[in-house]
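Hello,

Our lab assistant flagged a job as stuck in the queue for most of the afternoon. It eventually completed. Since we weren't sure the result was trustworthy after the delay, we are filing this so someone can double-check. Below is the sequence as submitted and the structure that was eventually returned. Let us know if re-running is recommended.
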Amino acid sequence: VGICISLGGIILETIADQQKSAQKAKRPDMVATEQLYKIVRCPNYFGEVLMWTGSFIICFGASCTLWQWVIASLGYIGIVYVMFSGARRLELRQAEVYGKDPEFQKYIKSTPLILPLVPIYSVAKHTWLKG
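-- returned structure --
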């Protein structure tokens, strides 16, 4: 299960990066808003989280000591923090560049930031996410 989730995350991240490049080539004046970017604003970050989630699940099959579990858990929490911190930096940068565009405003208010179906539309105000 963990291997499948990790591979799915890697594939998702790769497809998202390709889609973003293709969309930016067609329309460099706007963020990517089509395909996977209709589901979440940072599908590549979501893919990264999935990849590490799969890796963490693989760890359940290993015979680990308590300290190894603690270290693995802290590492997993750390990588999720890094992804949300990166999404915050991206959100702030995009707001600076595209913030006055009504199409962009509509997009960010209706598309979750990283996690599909989880209505987190902004983390800009969460200064504790500074990376």
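-- support follow-up --
The delay was a queue issue, not a problem with the job. The result is valid. Residues 44 and 101 are 23 Å apart (CA to CA). The two ends are 31 Å apart (CA to CA).
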